[in-house]
Structures are given as structure tokens and as C-alpha cells.
Write a structure and sequence with these properties.
With 275 residues, the chain is of the alpha+beta class. It is 33% helix and 24% strand. It is globular. The two termini are 18 Å apart.
Length: 275
């Protein structure tokens, strides 16, 4: 399926360096469908060397995913194997890559250095996708036909836990006092438990749908409904408007939170007609 991808990253005025990292990549094996990968990592500013942690998170994830995907083709009858029909294999590769990203962050930390990063990634294979996350970097899926925006990642913060327990309303003043406290992230322990890695299927991707992935600073305290309306309007207005969507998103987010901002917008485009 055709697509358009836009990305942006902006350093916070409070930081000496940008502690976010992103990568968009694609792979093709044996003439099969192209596998595309969107990855964002947010180095934790309250800990040491966040920029190094996020770099190691992204590089560790990408290296592992490429290896896992290559093995899937090599260990099968390659003429019959297709990633398009191997959701389970892609999900396992994404989970293994999150573990690899965690090991990479741990190995890259100095002795007695407390460091950490989030990781959020989406793998798109033709008309389906798989998302994975550790930490609080959001992944949104926009259903163009229903004009519906859904947060498909799990925000692993104290705020979310307390909201789920009914201690306060989600997105209340009390919620935002706790939303920077993560209970799970890369680099905290050398091995992540299965429950620590969140994976989600995205089925039946269609023209007009979109995937939005970024660090928490990219969204600030903007409501999901506001994000939906801004995104829907940009998609309706065409490619020129899409190009400015992330700039506008960042500007709105900075009204509430001055943090590094990184995001990727992936839009499912119409197929080009053959001449």
C-alpha cells in the first residue's frame, strides 16, 4: 500500500541536547511485500545520558528486528513464506526487539549509572500492522472511515495506574502531577518481563487511515479529541496541510510542556494508477 510519511524532532530549550531519537526504515526480502518500521525512543530526562539511552534503544531494536525478520525467511521454504501472512511471527519479532533494545540500553550505561529510555514502534506489512511499546511514548491509530482516533499503546505511568484504580479522573490536574512518573522503561532491569512489553494488532489498514507515534513531549496535554480534529482536518486538506501537522501539534503541546518533541505521521495513501 502506498503511504506518505512525515517526521520532526525539536530540542527543548531546557535541554543541552535532544534526548529523543526516531527512525523510519523498510525491508524487502525475496521479492515479498515491503515491511516498514517506525521507531521512536525518549531518553529519560530525569536520569543520566538520556540521549545515549534513546540512541541505544533505537539501534538495538532495529538490529534485532532485521535479524529476526531475516531468520523468518531463512528457516522456512522462502518461496512459500510471506510476512503478510505471519502476524504471529511479526509480533514475536517486535517483542524480541523490545528485549534487545532493553539490553542495548543496559549495556550502554556506565558503571553505576542510572539511565533509561522509552521505546514505541509500529511494523506495517501491507494491510496490517503490529505496535509495541515500553514506557509512555504514545502510539495513535486514526481510522479515516470512522473519523476515530485511538490510543493503542499503554502509557506505563503512575498516573495511568491511579486512574485505572479510580483514584482520580484521567487527564485531571492530579493525573498530570503523576504522568511523568514511569513504572516501566528500558534500562531499569536487564530483562523485561512479558507483561512489561505491550503489543497490539492493527488490522485492516485502509486508505485514509494514519498512524501517529511520538515522545510524550510531542503531545503535551492536548486532548485526544483535539488531536483527532487537527489530524482529520490536515488529511482532508491534502499533502501541504499534512506537512505542517506536526509543527502545529508541537506548538500546541509547548503551551503545557517544554520538552523534547519527536513524532512520525504515517498516512495510508491511495494507490497510484498505472499508465
Amino acid at each position: 500500500m502506498n503511504y506518505r510519511a512525515y517526521w520532526n524532532t525539536v530540542k527543548s530549550r531546557r535541554h543541552k541536547v535532544n534526548e529523543d531519537r526516531l527512525m523510519i526504515s523498510e525491508y524487502t526480502f525475496m521479492g515479498d511485500y515491503t515491511v516498514r518500521l517506525l521507531v521512536v525512543a525518549d531518553g529519560m530526562g530525569g536520569l543520566e545520558n538520556g540521549e545515549t539511552a534513546s540512541y541505544n534503544a533505537v539501534s538495538g531494536f532495529l538490529e534485532s528486528f532485521y535479524s529476526e525478520l531475516m531468520k523468518a525467511y531463512l528457516k522456512t521454504d522462502m518461496e512459500k513464506y510471506s510476512a503478510r501472512h505471519d502476524y504471529r511471527g511479526i509480533k514475536e519479532a517486535m517483542t524480541a526487539s523490545a528485549q534487545a533494545a532493553n539490553r542495548s540500553v543496559c549495556r550502554g550505561a556506565g558503571r553505576l549509572e542510572e539511565t533509561g529510555s522509552t521505546i514505541s514502534a509500529v511494523c506495517i506489512v501491507e494491510d496490517y500492522a503490529v505496535a509495541v511499546n515500553v514506557g509512555d511514548s504514545p502510539i495513535y491509530y486514526y481510522d479515516g472511515q470512522r473519523d476515530r482516533l485511538s490510543l493503542i499503546s499503554r502509557l506505563q505511568t503512575e498516573a495511568e495506574l491511579k486512574a485505572e484504580r479510580g483514584e482520580y479522573e484521567r487527564y485531571s490536574i492530579e493525573y498530570y502531577e503523576d504522568d511523568h512518573r514511569l513504572y516501566n522503561y528500558l534500562g531499569g532491569y536487564e530483562h523485561l518481563e512479558e507483561k512489561d512489553i505491550c503489543t497490539y494488532p492493527i488490522g485492516r489498514i485502509r486508505t485514509g487511515d494514519a498512524i501517529l507515534i511520538g515522545s510524550d513531549g510531542a503531545f503535551g496535554r492536548i486532548s485526544e479529541d483535539t488531536i483527532r480534529m487537527e489530524l482529520s482536518e490536515s488529511l482532508d486538506d491534502g499533502e501541504d496541510a499534512e506537512r505542517f501537522f506536526l509543527d502545529n501539534l508541537f506548538e500546541m503541546a509547548r503551551a503545557d510542556k517544554d520538552d523534547d518533541q519527536t513524532a512520525v505521521l504515517y498516512v495510508i495513501a491511495e494507490e497510484e494508477e498505472e499508465e
